[in-house]
Amino acid sequence: MSTLNRNDHIACHECDLLLSRPVISGDEVVYCPRCGSRLISSHPNSVERSLALALAGLILLLPANLFPVLTLEVLGRQQAQTIFSSAMALYDDNLPVVALCILLFAALVPLTKFVLLTYLSLALHLQKPWPGLALAMRGYQHLDEWSMLEVYLIGVLVSVVKLVDIAEVHPGLGLYSLGTLILVTTLSSSQLDPDLFWHQIEALSEDVTKKEFADE
Ligand SMILES: [Zn+2]
To answer: In this predicted model, what pLDDT tens digit does every residue of 6-63 receive, in sequence order?
Structure first.
């Protein structure tokens, strides 16, 4: 049985076809010959763009969570709701699971994602073999499937439509921040080049292993 050198081969993420790694330059894109999905494309400055978007996401999470998403006005009485206060209201209404879901998917998952992405892209930008890079990358890729800000935003919009007859509804700064946050999340997912990131993480950890061998 022959063994494959892991740097010479690449597997299609859609249909698992194993191919020899093509060398690409400029803005070339390589497609899988079997299923036609995109295998590699060069995202110029993928690491730096990811870093910038991750920092923007971290900053936007503050107004999205701290400022009211909606302010309701009924008979002169105003009530402002933030993501956190709406979760607490659901908890008080004996819906702890829904409250937990809101906190998880609207606040904790995006926060963890952007922290991981900042850590990863900063390490790769500075070429520092910080601990747990592979774990952070795996965690990031898993969490990428679990971001549900869009669902939350649709929920808010549906409630606006339902409430607009019985109350005056004012969108708050939190809602605009949430919309921008969704845009930044989508951009960061599309800008990140997983192949490049994994390649650089591997190169950094190999450098450390070589150094450790040399020190012994
Ligand atoms: Zn394929």
So the answer is: 567 888 878 989 988 877 776 778 888 999 888 877 677 889 999 999 999 999 999 9
CA of 30 to the centre of ligand 1 (A): 11
The rounded Å distance from CA 143 to ligand 1 centre is 23
Spacing, Cα 139 to ligand 1 middle (Å): 24
| pLDDT value at residue 215 | 67
- Asked if 137 and 198 count as a contact pair (C-beta separation under 8 A), the reply is yes
Which residues have CB less than 5 Å away from ligand 1 (the ion)? 12, 14-15, 17, 32, 34-35
Render pLDDT for 96-130 as a digit per residue (tens, 0 to 9).
Answer: 999 998 888 888 999 999 999 999 999 999 998 88
Residue 6: the pLDDT is 55
Q: Measure 33 CA to ligand 1 centroid, in angstroms.
A: 7
pLDDT grade for 5, boundaries at 50, 70 and 90: low
Q: How far is the CA of 38 from the centre of ligand 1 (A)?
A: 8
How far apart are the CA of 35 and the centre of ligand 1, in A? Answer: 4
